[in-house]
Amino acid sequence: MSTSSTEINLVKALLSASSVGSRKAPELILSAVQSILNLKASSFYSYYEPSKLLSLRAQHGMAYGSYQSFQLPLSKTAGRAIRTGRPIKIRDVRKEQDYRDVALVKQFGLRQMIAVPLPRSEEVKLEYGEINQKFIGVLCAYLNDEQNIDSVATTLWSVAPIIAITYQHAVIGELLTIRQDTMQTALAARDVDSFLHRLLSRLHSAWHYEALSAFLFDERSKTIRLKATTGLQNNPKKNEVQYRLDEASATVRTQTSGKSMLIMDPDKKHSNGKYKEAVAGARVAALLLPIYEPVKMEDMTQRCIGVLRIVNRILIFDSRREPICFGWEDAVFLQFVSGIIGVIAYMFGRVARKVEDFERAMHGAEGAILAVRAGLNQLMERTKIESLIDQQFIYVIPNALANLAALGWQIERFSRPEHERKLQLSKLTLAGEVLSKLQLVLQSMVRSFGDPKQGWRITNIGDRFIRDQQGGIPAVRGDVAALMTVFRNLLENAVKYSKRRSVVEVDLSWSQDKSFVYVSFSDKGIGIDDADAPYIFLESFKAEEAMRRHPVGIGLGLYQASEIMRQLGGAITLDHHRDPTTFMVKIQKWNEAAE
Amino acid sequence: MIYFVDEDSTQLTPYIVELELRGYQVVPIDNADDAYKVLSGASDIQLVILDIMLAAGPSGTSRFSRERTHDFILTGLALLEDLNNTNAAHFPRRVVVFSMANQDWVVNDIRKAAEQYQIAYLQKRDYPSPFGFGEKIAEILKGLGS
Question: What is the count of structural domains for chain B?
Answer without folding.
Answer: 1
